[in-house]
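Design request, tokens follow.
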């Protein structure tokens, strides 16, 4: 992977490096990037907006890393 993914990863950078992340994020209900929702901010701030507990956020980050490494 070119970019280390964490809660502090900027969503715009994530999507630029890994376009497949859009589908993953949408499935988790984090951002509807295809619907025109702004993509600025960090992955953590987007998950905070959805009231995901920190433990779940860390699980999602791990799942995203696995998803992207498999694609």
């Amino acid at each position: 992977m070119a970019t280390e993914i964490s809660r502090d990863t900027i969503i715009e950078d994530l999507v630029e490096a890994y376009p497949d992340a859009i589908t993953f994020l949408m499935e988790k209900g984090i951002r509807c990037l295809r619907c025109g929702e702004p993509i600025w901010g960090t992955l953590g701030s987007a998950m905070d907006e959805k009231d995901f507990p920190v433990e779940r956020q860390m699980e999602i980050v791990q799942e995203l890393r696995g998803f992207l490494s498999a694609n």
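Comment from the thread starter after seeing the answer: thanks! DSSP finds four helices and no strands in the chain.
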